[in-house]
Records
---
Amino acid sequence: MSKNKIRVYQLAKKLGLKSPKMVSILEELGIKDKGNLSMLDSETANLVEEYVKDMRKTQEENEKKSQRIQGNISIEEFAKRFNVSERAVRETIMKLGLPYKPNRKLSKVEVHYLAAEMGLDVPEFKNEEFIKRFVPRAPVVTVMGHVDHGKTTLLDTIRRTSVAEREKGRITQAIGASIVEYNGKKIIFIDTPGHEAFTEMRLRGSIVTDIVILVVAADEGVKEQTIESIDHARAANVPIIVAINKIDRPNADPERVKQQLADRGLLPEEWGGSTIYVPVSAKTGQGVEDLLEMINLQAELLELKTDPKTTCSGTVIESKMDKNIGPLATVIVQTGTLRAGDYIRAGDVVGKVRFLTDASGKRVKEAPAVSAVEVAGLPDVPKAGEIFYAFKNASEAKEEMKRIEEEKRLQKMKERSGPKTIEDLFREMQEKEMKKLLLILKTGTQGSLEAVKHAIKEIKSPIPVEIIHEGIGGIVKSDILLADASGAIILGFGVRPTTEAKKEAKARGVTIKTYDIIFELTDALEALLKGMVVAEKKEIVVGRALVKKVFKVSGVGTVAGCLVTEGKIVRGYKAKVLRNNVVVYSTEIASLKRFKQDVKEVLKGYECGVGLKNFNDIKVNDEIEVTTTEEQQA
Ligand code: GDP
């Protein structure tokens, strides 16, 4: 047996280990006698050998993983390398409080930190020095919900509940955000309730909100904008706390609200889900403290952090032009410290910070991360949602101004390229390596919504389709904002965009496709998913007219007195009657008159009398959309 014994130094040699390493291994294995000349029996020697093998294997794997970590890469490159979405990377950057400058490169240690936080397959992150830079930060909260459900009242009541504000004797709103303190913890509320503002911000690249409070009136329950708010918050990946408001009302029914929202995926905690519900009355203040406590709790779970010593960056949440002071912007400082005298860039606006006003209306010299302040001194009004960051000095700021000019020039060229075709869309999907097609679906009725959804489900395609928002009625501005922010396309069935939505879509390059026949919609979608080149719908819209008056003419039927608002109206062409942007009837222009004269066509800006074939139910404010086929037009 003694033959099989081996001395520690011999084993170390065999395994190619230096003596101190050998000692530490023996220690880790709990082997007591670890002098160089000590004898190990074969069993122990084997154990050590196995242990070293394992250790080396892990090391090798880690090295392989480490090779994936390279510094000086952009967010885009990071996303590609780790096969995650750019949005997710951006969200984590914001959550962790890494300085956020569009187009900046991430250092190696940042890449490692970020990847570790995102749970990606990388070696454990151990850089103590780096970790120490980050401190816990206050959450930024946005209140959303249906109109009149009590968002504004709730924010007012919260401000009044706040110790910090009460001590100062101020409860009025000074800037576009308020800082509230509850149980010694700060909460920053953005005072711009509403999902449009929220998505408008997200569009410009910022995810400044950490938590959404969804206000639902207990007497009215879930409404259209409640659903929109949920979809917008979900698309941004922001956790939702539900405040069931107006519980002081006699017909309040909180259980019904829970049921309605549970059906939409917000399952209450007490039913085994993960959504926090807090019954409140914004009017009496009942439950408001519970709500604040829940916000603190949720914030703790999110482990929000920031680096207060790095470059200053943050987000503009509101802006306005003041008659006396000039442009004013309320910003949330998310990293570093913002100081009066700093040069900053917010969107396309570059300038020097003249003075800062804090949330209680007091002038301050500096604003640390995380806080809300109003910035005065910029040469122009930046848009809500723009990310801002500070420069080291004036010359750096000037350089940046030059670059912005160049960016603007390129942007103009892009805008000239016109609306997207299905082929453009497909190319884009391929370029962005999109793994699924995101849709916003609007239809005329609940029945058609179900039918279209069913038809879409039936389409067999390698690329999955996800409907991120659906609704009944015309395509409106908030649909365009959501589409732009999420990279979705909008499909309308039996509905049309409002004029405002159309303009917005054009400016943002959002694709809207509308159909009135279900198989045309599914054919186009199927083709898009399969990457086939398809002939676009042959029907061309030539004009629109607004019905101003309705006349009954005996023997003829109903005649609509119209104003042509777009293009032209042509006798004999196909016509669709739109009521609130929903198609209610398809027919053709049977008669067209100008001052009792029969005419062939009437151009934009002129009034005319229109008779529709087989349709006498025309109403004031209806719109008539006139279409033709290519052949007819040629
Ligand atoms: P917003 O449109 O969501 O901002 O709603 P508001 O805050 O303006 O509230 C709409 C109306 O509901 C106002 O008349 C409020 O006084 C009332 N309201 C808001 N919260 C409550 C509440 O908790 N109880 C009762 N009874 N009324 C409320």
Note: The pocket of guanosine-5'-diphosphate is lined by residues 145, 147-153, 193, 245-246, 248-249, 281-283 (CB under 6 Å).
---
Amino acid sequence: MPGHALAPSVPIGVVGAGTMGSGIAQVAAVAGHEVRLYDVLPGAAASAIERIHGHVDRMVAKDRLTAPDGDAAKARLRPVQALADLAGCGLVIEAALEELSVKRELFTELEKVCGDDAVLASNTSTFSITAIAAGLQRPERVVGMHFFNPAPLMALVEVPAGAATSEAVAEQVFDTATAWGKTPVRCTSTPGFVVNRVARPFYGEALQVLEDGAADCATIDAVLRESGGFRMGSFELADLVGNDVNLAVGRSVWEQTFGDPRYAPSTRQQALVDAGWMGRKSGRGWYTYDDESPEPATEQPRPAPERVVYHGGFATCYGLLDRIVAGGVSVERYLTGASGARNGSDDFDPSEIAYGVELPSGGLVIETTGEPVSMDGDAVSLDWVGDAANATRVCLAPSDACEPNTLAEAIGLFQAASLAVTVIDDVPGLVVARTVSMLVNEAVDLVARGEAAAADVDTAMRLGTGYPRGPLAWGDEVGAGLVVDVLTELARAYPSGRYRPSPMLIRAARAGRPLVSLARR
Ligand code: NAD
């Protein structure tokens, strides 16, 4: 058992027997603790325990628990009628209503009934641990213990420390979560903690592309999934979480950061909530969930060009070359290394030639560095691809001066590589590049502010959101310099301050320092 974890003989109190409280009670009981469950609603704790028994039975049926261990876990769960019954618990986890006044009242009561050495934790998603603990006799024993839904299945637990939280208390909760089979991460009580903070652009960028009229929801979602490698698109995920919940989390981060433009809520999403279109739970959200599910924009088959010329070194397009060749297109490659040498010759100036593919039409396919491709004459912009070997779609945008033949050849080129092709309007940073760049920027910013360690940010985002990679590792793969380029172009296009690159990101890009190893001095 990790060094400071509470022994299984220590009783655990859980306040609030709803979705989260019952999941947390189940985790603690299966881990060997006596669990006392309290809810303000009479009978709620007892019926929650009945439901937990059902979940434990299913764990036994699936061989995830032996029958005697399942019976023992069930026997350890007990509903209690009053907060005072939590006296003697070594750790009380509050998972009641998400209202600051309710939580403050509860903690004031808990402080009175619990022993001096009891740790008091809150599962709040949005409130500051510092604010919850304010005014208590012993705020140093208050800490966050932020489980994800469903608590028994999700490995991640964020452990945010408030301004007054003692190191020993945070360590004890961290080690206890580890002993319960979870993967905890430490952070400060910063707005949104790690996951709800760093994930904001995943929604914000998709909304911006939608608001710019460049593509519809189904198309943006398909590009994020099939090209970016995300498990779900932003709109389908917001519909699953509930647009009311998603908007409230975003608004809370925005308000707590005093209106930082990076987190500005979307009027389009607000309109959805005003209409009562919360998502799956209300039968309508970004999608209508009737028989006609909208198809993403996908191009009809076009002939592949016989031969193209590739110039460059960027990850996305380079990674797709083998697939293009396997699809029967002959590719002449001019690779530019750090020296800029072209196929070994030293008379090549890389600044004179765009990175990307030269088509037989004379037009170019240019991997996006953030700026609209309409600056480049007869050209097509290529969005980033998360995983070139496994992507099933690419996203292209023609420049204003793009010849029809150039666009047709570009479409045929990627279709030859067995990729579906989506064509959208020429927006800065397209879809995947802007989303990934903003996720990287948020992650770096959190590290720069000393809110969380780099490794913890990547772990939290992989486990909490299911992103294919942690944003810092993703940034290293793409190259911090390219991320800065995309952000700089976006900042030029939308001068609100939302896209300003983190100073630590700029320094890391200049010094060639890996983002995964960044640390605050
Ligand atoms: P829920 O509505 O399912 O359950 C809340 C329960 O708390 C209800 O049973 C209610 O009767 C009870 N309650 C309300 N006031 C109380 C009081 N004063 N004393 C005791 N019990 C009281 O809500 P939930 O989704 O389980 O959320 C609980 C907490 O967990 C919130 O702070 C929420 O922000 C946080 N959280 C939720 C999720 C999620 O995905 N649902 C994820 C992480 C954290």
Note: Residues 338-352 have pLDDT under 50 and may be disordered.
